[in-house]
Amino acid sequence: MEFLESLSSIPFYLLAAITVICSLGMILNPNLVRAGFTLIGSFAAISGFYFMLSANFVAVSQVLIYAVGIVLVIVFAVMLCSLKEEASKVKDYIFASKPKAAFSIVISALVFSVLSFVIQSQDWETITKLTGASKYANLVDMVDEKYTSQIGYLMLNKYLLPFELISVLLLVVLVGVIILSKKEINK
Questions:
Q1: Model-level pTM?
Q2: CA distance 50 to 30
Q3: Is the dihedral of CA 150, 156, 158, 164 positive or negative?
Q4: Residue 35, exposed/middle/buried by CB under 10 A (0-12, 13-18, 19+)?
Q5: Digit-coded pLDDT (tens) for 109-161
C-alpha cells in the first residue's frame, strides 16, 4: 500500500521539476523565442497540477489562455520589433555582470529558504479553524462533475456581456500594439 502511495507522488515531482527547469530556462535565455517556448512549457506543467487536482476547466483554461496567449504575444513581438540589438544587450547584461548574477542567486535562494521554512512551520489546521475557512471545506464535496458546463452556461448567459467586452478589449490592445510599433517610413 505504501508503494502505491509513493507512486502517486511521482507525477507531482515530475511536474514540479519541469516547471522549475522551464522557468529557469525562460529567465536565463536571452533569445525571446526560446524563452517564450520554455514559458509555455512551464504553464503546461502548471496545468498538469490542475489536472491532478481534478480541476479540468482551470487546467484547460491555463493552457488556452496563458500558453496560447504567450505564443501569440511572442509572434507579434518578433514580427513587429527589431529584437537583435535588444537581445544582445540583455545577453551582455546578464552574462557580463557576474557579481550581480551571483548576488541575485543568493538573494533568491535566501527568499526561497525563508518562505519554505515559514510554510513548513505553520499549523495549518489551527489557521483554518481561526480564519473560519473550515466551514467552506464541505463546499468542495458539493461540486458535482458538471461544474464545467455550469461555468460555460453562466459565461454565455449571465456574464455574456463582460465576456465579450474582454475579447473586444484584447482586440483593441493588439491593434494598439501594432500601431505603436509600426516604423514610420520617411519619404
A1: 0.55
A2: 30
A3: positive
A4: buried
A5: 899 899 889 888 888 778 777 777 666 666 655 555 567 677 777 777 888 88
